[in-house]
Amino acid sequence: MNKVIQQHWFLKQASIILMLSFYLLACDTTQTSQPVDYTGPLTEIEDVEMYYTEKDLIKIKMVAKKVFEYENGDREFPEGIYLEFYNETGAITSTLRANSAYYFSEEDKWRGRGDVEIINIEKKEQLNTEELFWKQDTKRIFTEKFVTIKLEAEVIYGTGLEAAQDLSDYTIKNPQGEFDMVD
Length: 183
Fold this sequence. Notes:
Shape: elongated
Largest sheet: 6 strands, antiparallel, barrel
Oligomer: single chain
Number of domains: 1
Helix content: 10-25%
């Protein structure tokens, strides 16, 4: 009987070792992957209306349906942006509208895309393009894309533009169309 108990004990130990061996073989030894850094927006704001002022005077009004703010300070306006620019008396001098916009914090530069439109209310001029950049510190706009400028009596076409933000002065790099030359 002692021999039967020894065999039973041996079989029991062997089956435990065999089961542990199968268990260890079945375990996946691959390492877990490192967590992925999140690069999306930190905040999302809806129905935004902001004002930029200097010496208690409104200089710029901004309206946007949605704004994403990123960790590096960049801001994205995926559903468009509308800006109004004011003079010293508080009158609107020009407006800017774009289907989408992006603010590059490090460069302090804005980019409008889609149907970009600037209207100089005082001079009754309008600029249209598909992409436009704006530097707030220099109050200048520029693009390498095709532009259309509608004046009171003529329309100027061209590719590439550098201008004041209110279109008070501008240079079209490759102008096209019919327009009067003033000496």
